[in-house]
Design a protein that fits this description.
mainly alpha; 178 residues; 9 helices; elongated; 0% strand
C-alpha cells in the first residue's frame, strides 16, 4: 500500500466504523470483519465517484456525508439480502418429523457426535482442542478446565470464543437438546 493510500484510510476509515456503529453491528458480530472490508471497498468507490475533489479542504465534510450514505446503503443491502436468503431457506417440515421420527439408538447418536467432534478438531489449535475435549467429552466446567490447564478462566473463555468462531459451519449439524 502506498503512502497516499495509507493516509487516505487513516483519514477516512472511521466513516466505515461510524456506519457499523449506527447500524448496531458490534465487533462481536460474526460477520463484523466482512462488513468492515465491504465498507472499506465502498469507501474507495465513494472516493472515485464523488463529483468534487475529496482532497480539497472545502469538500472534506461533504465527502464524509456522501461516503457515509453510500456505505450505509451498501451494508443495509447486504443485511437485507442475508435476511431474505435466511427466510427462503426452508426448515424440516413438522409433518415430516411427526411421520418419520428420528429412530437412531443412543449409541448411534453418540457415535455420530464423536465423528463430528473428531472432524471439528482438525480446524482447531491445540489449546482449542483441549477445551473442546474437556468441555464436551469430560463435561468439565470452565473453572475445572482452567485449573487443569493452569490458566485463567478468562483464557478459557478466549479459547472458547475462538473455537466457536471457527466451528460456526458445524452448527448446522448440531441439533439443540430439548
Amino acid at each position: 500500500m502506498t503512502e497516499n493510500e495509507m493516509a487516505f484510510f487513516d483519514r477516512h476509515s472511521t466513516i466505515v466504523f461510524g456506519v457499523l456503529k449506527r447500524l448496531g453491528i458490534q465487533r462481536t458480530h460474526p460477520d463484523y470483519d466482512d462488513f468492515v472490508q465491504q465498507g472499506l471497498l465502498k469507501l474507495v468507490e465513494a472516493y472515485e465517484t464523488f463529483p468534487e475533489d475529496p482532497e480539497n479542504e472545502a469538500f472534506i465534510y461533504p465527502f464524509g456525508g456522501f461516503a457515509f450514505t453510500k456505505i450505509q446503503w451498501h451494508i443495509k443491502d447486504l443485511r437485507r439480502k442475508e435476511r431474505r436468503k435466511a427466510l427462503n431457506e426452508s426448515s424440516w417440515p413438522v409433518l415430516m418429523e411427526e411421520n418419520y421420527p428420528d429412530r437412531q439408538s443412543q449409541f448411534e447418536k453418540e457415535c455420530l457426535e464423536m465423528d463430528l467432534i473428531y472432524e471439528m478438531l482438525e480446524y482447531l489449535t491445540k489449546k482449542e482442542q483441549l477445551y473442546l475435549i474437556d468441555a464436551v467429552i469430560y463435561r468439565l466446567t470452565v473453572t475445572e478446565i482452567a485449573e487443569k490447564n493452569q490458566v485463567s478462566r478468562k483464557t478459557i473463555y478466549q479459547w472458547r470464543k475462538s473455537m466457536m468462531k471457527k466451528l460456526q459451519p458445524f452448527l448446522v449439524h448440531i441439533k439443540p437438546a430439548g
